[in-house]
Specification:
Layout (H helix, E strand, L loop, with lengths): L11 E6 L7 H13 L15 H4 L2 E6 L6 E3 L2 E3 L6 H18 L5 E3 L35
Parallel strand pairs: 1-2, 2-5
Antiparallel strand pairs: 3-4
Helix pairs in contact: 1-3
Length: 145
């Protein structure tokens, strides 16, 4: 941020969090639980998809990313589904607080809310997983023909 390094982590997860107008405490709790328990790391024997960030005692870097709420209208991005700044900052801080309560506070890092940031991610795998709230997600097994 402004040429200054705000945060960094070693092995772990980089969470880009897009907060929607429709997000509530329920979605926040779901995201915290999923992020901390998502099995994306290998175990000691090298078996993939076996261990969570908590199992491995890895770090989590969180970045508020309102642009994830973008809807394209032609070639122009529209952000009307993103939560307004003041409300989103409170939600984001609550999200960080819940992550720290559920895990080890010293392993949860973040950037600077609302700032223009350069985020350097080394994607190991590469693995990128989109995680949405239960209400937004559609399970293909539950779709009737």
């Amino acid at each position: 941020v402004g040429g200054e390094q705000i945060s960094s982590i070693g092995r772990g997860l980089c969470v880009l969090l897009g907060i929607s107008l429709e997000d509530t405490q329920r979605e926040l709790e779901h995201m915290v639980r999923k992020i901390l328990n998502l099995r994306v790391f290998e175990d000691e024997s090298g078996k993939h998809w076996s261990k969570s960030v908590m199992d491995k005692q890895y770090e989590v870097l969180c970045v508020s990313q309102f642009t994830l709420q973008c809807i394209l209208k032609g070639n122009k991005p529209d952000y009307h589904m993103a939560m307004p700044t003041e409300q989103a900052e409170c939600f984001y801080n609550n999200f960080l607080e819940q992550l720290r309560k559920a895990y080890k506070p010293e392993l949860i890092k973040d950037g600077k809310f609302g700032a223009y940031m350069q985020v350097h991610i080394q994607n190991d795998g590469p693995v990128t997983i989109e995680l949405e709230s239960p209400a937004a997600a559609v399970d293909p097994k539950q779709v009737s023909e």
